[in-house]
Amino acid sequence: MADTAVYSGATGDSYNRNALAGPYWSSSQVGAVVFTDNGDVLVARTTDGGATWGAPTTIWSGTTMSHLAAWYDRETPGLGTTLLHIAWLSPDGTDTCRYCTFDVADATVGTVRTVDATITVSSTANLNRIAITRTRSGLVLVAFSTQTEHKCWKSADLFASAGTSRASPYETATEEDVVLMFPANTGDDNDACCLFHDRSVDDLTIKMFDDSANTWTEFGTPLDTSIPEEFPYIHMDGALRHSDGHLLVAAQKAPAASGGSIKTWDVTVASITVPVVTAKTNVVSTGWLYQVAMLIDQFTDAVYVVWNKGPTGDAVVYKVSTDGMATWGSEMPYSQGTIYHPLLLHVGRSVTSAGGRFQPCWFDSGSSDVSVNLVNDIGLGPVVAAGGLTPHGAVVGFMAPPTYTGGITPTGAFTGYTPSKADVGGGLTPAGTLALLDTLAAAIGGAIEPVGVHRGLGERTFAGSLAPAHEMGWVTYDKHAGAMTPAGSVDTVLDYLFTGAMTPAGALAQALTAALSGTIRPVGIFSILRPPLRVAARMRALVTDHDGTKRGHIL
């Protein structure tokens, strides 16, 4: 399958404007990419996991656009909202720094705001720089550098009112230094930090922003003292790991050369004066490399680093680390089609437990296309746990202590997680077969066959079957049995004070004093939470077979 075009005909020199960011995901299916076409700032959105991209939404229509930066709420630890924050510099007769939001979840476009209109933006796009972040407290910081000035502004109301001037992380207006800003983890949720590439000396350093003192403090020991410039490109990236607030960094040395490498660092940004920098393992130690982008799966802490591999037959490739960048897996292909030169790469930086995808996008300076790939992308978020949906629509699942949650989406996909040591595994094959193994003493096993028949056996003397006609029979050591009436209602009484009912509309409400709860919504979504205890139960409305077995029927 060829690569999928997000947009054809983007600005030919988008690499001079850093004019590509995303995809940013509000769910596993809904994502957005921001880019430019001449003077326009555009956002393309998908609602089917990147298979198709609608006509882009115009955020700003202008004659020229100089430099762009973007930040997504879910990059910031503790923020689960879905606003994409976009800032850009426009030398369009009224030189201005502007800002706007785009809600990835519902495509709502905010009001374009003026951050600063008292500036002089260079008409040469790559002589300007801009950076943006949102702190843990929700403040938006926008910093920029032109050939005339460098400034920084903060806002607590998305620049609905005039921002507050702050100290700038840039050091001079004429060096075109590179700044990438992030929230800090100092205890003051207004604080921030940044990666700073000083082009005059090739240093890559960390700067910490103390909001209360209005100061930027540069950490005395650089991450690296020989990160050569490759003007006007940005060959570094970083992302915040939400589990501990660390800033993870990847940067290329000697890009576009046979001896290039990708170095990595783990930075503890918890102190204004003494951040802790730990060098980690190189992603690549030698090779022809170009551009680099990073994403963290916040659900598992897996780190993805993607780059362009050349010099002939350019291709976008990646590696994954599951141990905090101590080791890296094998190099994996991502792009499939012919690429002239992917001079911009981005991957959205962060996917939370709400779900999303590792789906890097790139700008090809030969075709001027912005593209992704659906064959080699990876769905991220909650891992698959025990459970399944049969061809006839019946649901079967197993739970392992101490906690379990899961869901069956309207399209029949199953997601869930079990953070215990139970090590529950499972999968739903294209033929509809589910195989399970729980390494606990319960030794639960089972299968869902294509015809919809379920069989299971465990040490707790559980046995059951789900026939194609939807007949369900349960016999257990804990004396559990049940029935669902033709009207769609179920009345259940458990020994642990469980009660519940399924209405004709398909809703299920459950309450258990031992902290069992769950919901089946009318759209078919199921979630459940179970405590680490054995539940014994009896269900009413039983039917007794001729052999004395208690059975219930779904009619």
Keywords:
single chain; 555 residues; mainly beta; Neuraminidase; 8-stranded antiparallel beta sheet; 6-stranded antiparallel beta sheet
Q: Would you write up a description of this structure?
A:
It is a single chain. The protein has 555 residues and is mainly beta. The chain has 2 domains: 4-8 and 16-380, Neuraminidase, CATH 2.120.10; 388-553, no CATH class. Helices cover 0% and strands 44% of the residues. It has no helices and 50 strands. The strands form 12 sheets. An 8-stranded antiparallel β-sheet has the order 37-38-39-40-41-42-50-49, with no helix packed on it. A 6-stranded antiparallel β-sheet has the order 47-46-45-44-43-48, with no helix packed on it. Strands 18, 19, 20, 21 and 22 form a 5-stranded antiparallel β-sheet that branches. Strand 7 (83-90) and strand 8 (96-103) form a beta hairpin. It is globular, with a radius of gyration of 27 Å.
Number of helices: 0
What's the level 1 CATH class of the largest domain?
Mainly Beta
Q: How would the global form be characterised?
A: globular
What is the spatial order of strands in the main beta sheet? 37-38-39-40-41-42-50-49
Distance between the termini: 44 Å
Share of β-strand residues: 35-45%
Helix content: under 10%
Low-confidence stretches: 384-555
What is shown here, in short?
This protein has 555 residues and is mainly β.
List the helices and strands and how they pair.
Blueprint: E1 4-8, E2 20-25, E3 31-37, E4 40-46, E5 57-60, E6 67-72, E7 83-90, E8 96-103, E9 113-116, E10 129-134, E11 140-145, E12 150-155, E13 164-166, E14 178-183, E15 192-198, E16 203-210, E17 215-218, E18 236-241, E19 246-253, E20 260-268, E21 276-279, E22 284-287, E23 289-297, E24 302-309, E25 315-321, E26 332-333, E27 342-346, E28 350-351, E29 356-358, E30 361-364, E31 369-372, E32 378-380, E33 388-389, E34 395-396, E35 405-408, E36 414-417, E37 425-428, E38 434-437, E39 445-448, E40 454-457, E41 463-466, E42 471-475, E43 492-494, E44 499-502, E45 508-511, E46 517-520, E47 526-529, E48 537-539, E49 543-544, E50 550-553
